[in-house]
Amino acid sequence: MKPVIIGICAAFFFAFTFVLNAIMEAGGGSWIWSASLRFIFMVPFLLVIVLMRGNLKQLLLEMNKNKRAWALWSFVGFGLFYAPLCFAAAYSPGWLIAGTWQITIIAGTLLAPLFLITLYTNKGPLQVRGQIPIKGLLVSLIIVAGVSLMQLEHIASVSSASIWFGFLPVILAAFAYPLGNRKMMEVCDGRLDAYQRVLGMALASLPFWFLLSLYGLFTVGGPTGSQSIQTLVVAISSGVIATVLFFKATDLVRGNMQKLAAVEATQSMEVVFALIGEILFLSIAWPSALSWCGIVLVMLGMTVHSYISGQKKKSVMQLNA
């Protein structure tokens, strides 16, 4: 239950991304700066945290052991995650992006066969390829169905161009984020804590963000003062607080694909939090009865996820007794 609660807290801070990106886009800010400045701003905060914990040297040694893996999976987990998400904000409202982003719930479940898990048998540890948890997948479909109901009434008012440009990049991001996160967990193999891993991925992805910033300077010019401040807020809330919380939650269930899927399912709460944020700060219309039905489905899906995870843990404890 603890990893699920941490995941919900992460979803709250992740929701700042959708609301503030919508505000920045409405103010004429470029998606290039919304994306690149977030990770550039993240580094100093995370660097101070890791330094205060006395873990920087260990992180640098780990990164030096496997530079290519850090560069590749940090680019996938951070670069291919956030740049497309910010690009989509130029074509779709925040609520639609937040709704589409929930595909990451199913994406995380479908990625299970790409990873090896360790089983401890009488003959010693045995590595086997992960399997797609069918119950988790079915519950994920309930959550996505709820999200779809929440957004259904709005789709008719969005142009076809906005749907495609606001949809496909988010799908890419939805698969890239859990893929990069899980691959980095394999690379670290429990040797680094959440703060170290987030800082390491931010550092390893900096070349991409600097190149994107250089492209932005030549194409759209520099960022405005207000966009810089808003991006700083996103960097602290979503980039530092939410990312560390989410990575901490996934670390707690590392190697258990069912529980990992449950933690990733908590990110469906981003839609609820983003909806509340847009009502408060962007004065969007209050959800209809159809949308509230969707919210109930999301809550139901999360409850069932937690129940299934708890039942499996109980069974294991009884088996070992």
Automatic annotation (TrEMBL):
Coiled coil: none annotated. Signal peptide: none annotated. Pfam families: EmrE. InterPro entries: EmrE. The chain crosses the membrane at residues 31-51, 72-91, 97-120, 132-152, 158-177, 198-217, 229-249, 261-283, 289-308. Keywords: Membrane, Transmembrane, Transmembrane helix. This is Multidrug resistance efflux transporter family protein. It comes from Planococcus notacanthi.
